[in-house]
């Protein structure tokens, strides 16, 4: 299935709320990604994502509609050569290879756009699909930290996957 990464637009609000308002997605995201996902949450998110320069957070568009999001977040201070990646996709689009290809595109964009040497992602130990996505996109598991995250009252393992800038 074809998709493209692009900037978020205020016109994306209905599809953003429709796709993001899902406990199956929120359950694998940090608490900044709420459930329920409201129009107000979506408006605030689009306003924030739209003012970044260079762009850090992209909509994943399928057939003209924003059905997910992916972002790269360069770090500062002693972590300044690193960036964290996060992503989500509307449930009707799972299992089609979209996120794996979006991760690959964002990795290329990240190394081209930012002065970084490493991109990392931190999926929950329970998020097997995200672990597979990262492995298919060339990320290596660097570490597992037991019960470091707390989500919905449950302690979860934190995994750290990373990819390095090609030499």
TrEMBL record:
Coiled coil: none
Superkingdom: Bacteria
Xref: InterPro entries: Acyl_CoA_acyltransferase, GNAT_dom
Annotated GO MF terms: acyltransferase activity, transferring groups other than amino-acyl groups
Keywords: Transferase
Keyword Transferase listed: yes
Residue stretches making up the N-acetyltransferase domain: 3-166
PANTHER family given in the database record: ACETYLTRANSFERASE-RELATED (PTHR43328), N-ACETYLTRANSFERASE DOMAIN-CONTAINING PROTEIN (PTHR43328:SF1)
Name listed for the protein in its UniProt record: GNAT family N-acetyltransferase
Naturally occurring in which organism (per UniProt): Hymenobacter taeanensis
């Amino acid at each position: 299935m074809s998709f493209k990464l692009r900037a978020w637009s205020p016109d994306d609000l209905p599809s953003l709320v429709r796709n993001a308002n899902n406990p199956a997605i929120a359950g694998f995201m940090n608490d900044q990604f709420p459930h329920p996902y409201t129009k107000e949450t979506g408006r605030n998110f689009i306003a924030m994502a739209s003012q970044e320069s260079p762009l850090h957070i992209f909509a994943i568009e399928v057939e003209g509609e924003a059905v997910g999001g992916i972002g790269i977040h360069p770090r500062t201070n002693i972590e300044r050569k690193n960036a964290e990646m996060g992503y989500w996709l509307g449930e009707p689009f799972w299992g089609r290879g979209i996120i794996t290809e979006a991760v690959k595109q964002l990795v290329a964009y990240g190394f081209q756009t930012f002065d970084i040497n490493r991109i990392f992602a931190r999926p929950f130990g329970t998020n097997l699909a995200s672990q597979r996505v990262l492995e298919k996109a060339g990320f290596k598991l660097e570490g597992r930290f037991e019960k470091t995250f707390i989500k919905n009252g449950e302690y979860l393992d934190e995994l750290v996957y990373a990819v390095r800038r090609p030499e």
